Amino acid sequence: MEEMKEHNKENSEAAAPAPAPAPEQPAAEAAPAPAKPKKPKTSRTQFAATGRRKVSTSRVRLLTPGKGRIMANGKPLEQYFTRETHRIVIQQPLKAAQLEGKFDIHINSVSGGMTGQAEASRHAIARAIIKYDQAMRPVLKKSGYLTRDPRVKERKKYGRKRARKRFQFSKR
């Protein structure tokens, strides 16, 4: 048995070809391509929170220091929320806390309509401001931005046209 192992070792060593010497290349071709300069990492602190309204959910990150830019689902605020009222609603907690232009804000909203997403974003921004500075809580609480609005669409009932509307009654 041992003889077979030794015989296999000898055959495998003899069968393996010797590595061929690498051809010499000019120094210019052998040098690796210069690496892209990396962006310096800035020390940015972020405060994240989630807000909800109707069936909409918004996740918000406040990045500090910032220049006041607001991005909604990867687009500038003006492109995503085209109605002026929606943009005003989103900025209400910042105005109440007097923090306009202090943060860069990234909003990720899903489901529901534009109004629900805007109000969910307002709720999330208010909660994130509380994480940034606990002293802002009374101001935001008094304005009603920390309360989750519980109103949702009522379900449709059987035997009805909608949740409460009935089919037209015909006497004859």
Label this structure with key terms.
single chain; 172 residues; alpha+beta; Ribosomal Protein S5, domain 2; 5-stranded mixed sheet
Textual characterization of the structure:
- Strands 1-2-5-3-4 form a five-stranded mixed sheet.
- It has helices spanning 2-15, 27-30, 77-80, 84-96, 114-132, 137-143; strands at 45-53, 56-64, 70-72, 75-76, 104-110.
- It has a domain at 45-143: Ribosomal Protein S5, domain 2 (2-Layer Sandwich).
- The chain is α+β, with helices and mostly antiparallel strands and 172 residues long.
- It is flat and about 105 Å long.
- The model has no long low-confidence stretch (mean pLDDT 84).
- 35% of the residues lie in helices and 17% in strands.
- A hairpin with a 2-residue loop joins strand 1 (45-53) and strand 2.
- The chain is built from six helices and five strands; from the N terminus they run ααββββααβαα.
Walk me through the topology.
Elements: H1 2-15, H2 27-30, E1 45-53, E2 56-64, E3 70-72, E4 75-76, H3 77-80, H4 84-96, E5 104-110, H5 114-132, H6 137-143
Parallel strand pairs: 3-5
Antiparallel strand pairs: 1-2, 2-5, 3-4
